[in-house]
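Take a record:
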Amino acid sequence: MLTNWTTERSQYLYKDRYLNHRIDRCRTPEGVVVDPYHVIEYRDWINVVAVTPDLDLLLVREYRHAGGFVATGLPSGTFEDGDDALSCAQRELREETGGVSSHWFATTTVFANPAVMTNRVHSFLAINVALEADTDFDESEEIETVPMPVTAVYQDLLSGRVLVQGLHLASLYAAAAFVRGLSDPLLTPFRDAIERAYKAR
């Protein structure tokens, strides 16, 4: 039966408001010492699949420095002090796109990479999103909102034509799985748009 490792010692090499870099000395149940073991402590993240009444999915384009390119993805962000997952998702959607909604659904929560990272990623579906608020970017942010038809987005995903961040991909598929199993009339137009993408494969 698999059991947890024992952490014998921990020390921090670096801390700032974005992340902590921790080094552990660990021992496996078989007595093997693993030293150093690097752990990155992040705050939790959120991703939002935001759908307008016209069945556009609100994507954003933003420069991603580690990848070295302008990426297309979902509205997303990091927990701030006092946040819960929903309040963080609502704030990030509003700040990045100006979008607001009264209809929110939690679709999944996953670990980003539990081998070396501590944080979880919370995915939400927002329906009937209206672009009626002012955006509020961080000083270093430049973000373009790109509305795309839901069916077209999922057709591109299913064909492999879109390069997106892996956890955004997970959020998009989680939203599809969530609505395909429900009969809520509020979700029916979004579900039908996704079904058209699957049937077009």
Q: What stands out?
A: The two ends are 43 Å apart (CA to CA).
